[in-house]
Amino acid sequence: MAYIKGLRCRECGREYPIEPVHVCEFCFGPLEVVYDYEAIAAVVSREKITSGPPTIWRYAELLPCSPGAERVDLGSGFTPLVKADNLGKALGLKRLYLKNDTLNPTYSFKDRVVSVALTRAKEFGFNIVACASTGNLANSVAAHAAKAGMAAYVFIPADLEKGKVLTTAVYGPNLVAVDGNYDEVNRLCAEIAGEYPWAFVNVNIRPYYAEGSKTIAFETAEQLDWRAPDHVVVPIASGSLLTKIKKGFNEMIKVGLIEARSTKISGAQALGCAPVATAFEAGVDIIKPVKPKTIAKSLAIGNPADGYYALKAVNETGGAITTADDDEIVEAIKLLAENEGIFTETAGGVTVAVLKKLVESGKIKPDELTVAYITGLGLKTLEALEGKVGPKATISANLDDFQQAFGL
Ligand SMILES: Cc1ncc(COP(=O)(O)O)c(C=O)c1O
Ligand SMILES: [Zn+2]
Fold this sequence. Notes:
This protein is α/β, with parallel strands linked by helices.
């Protein structure tokens, strides 16, 4: 436990030992991992990190696992930070970068959080893991559990995309398709978590699991030659990723890896599931739950656990939260693919569509060094493109037909 002090309630500040618990017994606030930053500052350096593994584990001192822990590691992280000059030009941004997190072991950023969660769960002595998921977490938990030799119970809404269901089932977990939306699946999981002593990555292991998302910020700063961006655009489902990106940049400053700089953090939601964007636009801090209806199923959380904190992070940094409707999501998927050769799922479509709107509205300035987070792969949500893209010509196998089709 060298660098972890314990858990602390985000609301009342009460402290708890390192155990598989996630809510404060006194005020029901969420618990968060507390680190000994002085001790960490004394051991981390740019050189040490650079010589570490090309994975999230190069930042092990800032993750909530013991130094000697047996890691559950499929090689997550250290994904490319792409300088997106073509897309930047199309949108009117001079310094646009994309963090291509589609290139993780199960093709989404969730591999970061799951590698940390299962490593910690193993340390606690669990041999059964579980989760409620909108799809990508399911993929990742199933794959990491297979590698770790742990049994897994994975709960998903029954109407998820085929590309999420099959790519989870293939790893052999106890995959449970529930007739209901994510919020209903999550409620069921909270109940099951009370009955069985399992490691529910987004319930009793949540404080540890969520920390894995910080690594996407650590890498961003390292890949920008050790500086934080001016502005970032982050998709919001539960709001955890956005919250932890802020924490990640702050921690790097705290332990002396980068200079202090304020990074504006903006959020992206689908119009059909926008509880945090709605609160942002109304200027209130109460998130009213909604019933999701959007093609961005991975972001379809109507009652986001960290929505309040995500909203706070956006407001504190001077960012904004905007939405994209289904047509805009598909257009943005195409815009990204055609300009940068990156094929993202619907969540990335939401992010790129919102990035475009934030530039158009002047919220992101042309000179700002901007990073947009592309968090999942397009092959998992092919349904979104059905009938929207296809062959330019369908011909018989002869030269004449080809020449005629293209006027050559
Ligand atoms: C591809 C993708 N991007 C972003 C998110 C949002 O993550 P969070 O729940 O941490 O807000 C999710 C959540 O499932 C996701 O699958
Ligand atoms: Zn409390």
